[in-house]
Amino acid sequence: GVLRNLPLQAKLSGSSSTLTHSYEKGGYPVNEESLRTILNEALMPIHKSLNTLNDNMQSLEQRVGSLERGQGVLSNHFDKMQDEQSSLSHNVETVREEQASLSRTVGMMKEEQTSLSQTVSSMQEEQTALSRTVGIMKDEQASLSQTVSSMQEEQMSLSQTVGIMKEEQASLSQTVSSMQEEQTALSRTVGIMKEEQTSLSQTVGTIKEEQQYMKQAVLETNDTVTRMEKKMDHHERILDLLSRRSIEHELEIKHLK
C-alpha cells in the first residue's frame, strides 16, 4: 500500500522547509527537533490506527486475492485506493493539514473497507448461488440427454417398422397387380364364352328350324321321328347345361367385381 511505501517520518522530513522557522513558546525558542518530537507524539495515535488499518488491509487483500483468481473484478477497487492514498501524500503541505487529511482518509478507508467486505461477502454468496445453479443445470442436461437417447431409440424402431410396412405394401401391390391381370384374363374368357354361347344359341335355332323340316320330311317313318326326338332331348340337355354354366360364370364375375 501507499502508506507502507511512505512512512510518517519521511513525510515529516519532507515538510522540513516549513519547520525550519523558530517558534516562541513562553519566551524560549523551539527548534526543529523538539517540534518534530512533539508532532510525532501527537500523530502517534493516528500512526497506530494506520498500522492497524494496514494490517486489516493486508488480511483483506489476502481474502480478495483468493477471489481474484476466480472473479478478477476487485483490482479496480485497490487501484482506486492506491490513487487516493498517493494523491493524499502529495497534497500534504503542513503537519496539521496532514493530520486532518489523514483523519479523513482513515475514515474513508474504513468506509471503503466495510464496503469492500460487504462486496466480498456478496460475491461469495453469488458464487455459492451460481454453483447451485450450475449443479441444477448439469442435472437437467443429464436428464435431457437421456430423453434424447430414448427418442433416438424410438425413432430407430419406428424407422424399422416403416421399412417392414413398405416391403409388405410392395408385396401387396404385386399381389393386387397379379389379381388384376387374372381378372382381366377371366373377363376375356367370359367374353369368349358369351360369344360361343351366342353362336351356340344361333346353332340351336338353326337346329330347331331344321328339326321342323325334318319332322315334316320324316313323318312316314316313326323310327326316324323317334331318333330325332332323342337328338332334340340331347340337345336340350346340352343347352340347359350350357345355360347353367353361363349363369354360374356371370355370378362369379359379379362376385369378383
TrEMBL record:
Gene3D superfamilies cross-referenced by the UniProt entry: 6.10.250.3110, 6.10.250.370
Name of the protein in its database record: Uncharacterized protein
Protein species of origin: Alteribacillus iranensis
